Automatic annotation (TrEMBL), chains A, B:
This is TetR family transcriptional regulator. PROSITE patterns: HTH_TETR_2 (PS50977). Residues 8-20 have a biased composition (Basic and acidic residues). Residues 43-62 bind DNA. GO terms for molecular function: DNA-binding transcription factor activity; transcription cis-regulatory region binding. The keyword tRNA-binding does not apply.
């Protein structure tokens, strides 16, 4: 009996790994697809093909289009948070580097994908409540992480709002980068606001 | 002859007024439609019906869908600039009031409409270059007006980037208001950043 169970467990493990890998491929393909084609161009079929997965397998993992794309944005947001934390394992030694890394969260394909999802959610009923909830969750996590990495003391009056305003600015910089390569201007703005943040958080 | 010409001129004037009024109704309906339904839901027919204008008359004013919606966003942006300037005819006496008024530019239907247009332009070929150009023009004008109303001295190092960062923050606050009523949080952030701007621009 024990031998049979062990063999079954061994058989199950790689199956779970394969399933997890498939899921991950679908999530990454979904974010890339959203970023490039927007919500109207992003369907489960298009993502399945891009991920090299059958449509049936895709629907096994994500029964609806809304499931797939909200899960995708959440997954990639978590990956980005982990990556940001990994960049600064002891907190941020250099505040300018950290500020630049946080702003970078808002200028890549993840932000672009999230933006398409938000905008679609503002007039698509099935998407609205789910994306609102997702945005709140990801927003809280980004705020928490930024406060921690900046070493900001939120018990001091104004510090919480200073960090929030900085994250709003990062989001606005992401939007300004949507249609044009805004890097040169952005670097000057970020350099100046790093000085401002330094003074405010001291 | 003089009498006939005068009569024709008198006849032309109300015609031009009517034409201008029709154009204006179309532009306002187009922005409202974009804000509510997004780019996919916004067609010339839908706007014409909303404005109470025939489809033919709408196409006489705006031969293509792109013409109509880019003109609409530009028109409403200009209206908003005029309104902002009219609010502060002698420049801004109270900086907090001005900061709040500038942030308001980014939380109403115009910003929502512009956002839909930008996002659509990021993956619609016919729209891309036109919206990029429009965004640059409106952005420059808003920057110029904000500098003027804030009485900011851009010859001082960092001042230009401070104002730019503030406008990026306003844009980010607009985005945060897309799916939820973010007013309470926004007011706290704006109050804090008014203090920061005061210190930086002094």
């Amino acid at each position: 009996m024990g031998v049979v169970n062990d063999a079954r467990a061994a058989d199950r493990a790689p199956k779970q790994d394969r399933s997890r890998a498939t899921r991950q491929r679908l999530l990454e393909a979904a974010v890339a697809c959203l970023a490039e084609r927007g919500w109207t161009g992003s369907t489960v079929s298009v993502v399945a093909e891009r991920a090299g997965v059958s449509r049936g397998a895709a629907q096994h993992h994500f029964p609806t289009r809304e499931d797939l794309f909200t899960a995708a944005v959440e997954y990639v947001a978590e990956q980005r948070s982990h990556a940001l934390r990994a960049l600064f394992p002891q907190g941020a030694a250099d505040r300018a580097e950290l500020v630049a890394a946080v702003v970078d969260l808002y200028t890549g394909p993840l932000f672009r994908a999230a933006l398409h999802l938000w905008v679609a959610a503002s007039h698509e009923e099935q998407l609205g409540p789910r994306v609102t909830e997702l945005e709140a969750r990801v927003g809280r996590e980004t705020h928490r992480l930024t406060v921690e990495l900046l070493g900001a003391d939120e018990t001091r009056p104004g510090v919480r709002e200073t960090v929030q305003g900085f994250l709003d600015m990062a989001r606005g910089l992401g939007l300004a980068n949507l249609l044009t390569d805004d890097r040169a201007r952005r670097e000057r703005v970020v350099a100046q606001w790093t000085r401002v943040l330094d003074r405010e958080l001291r």
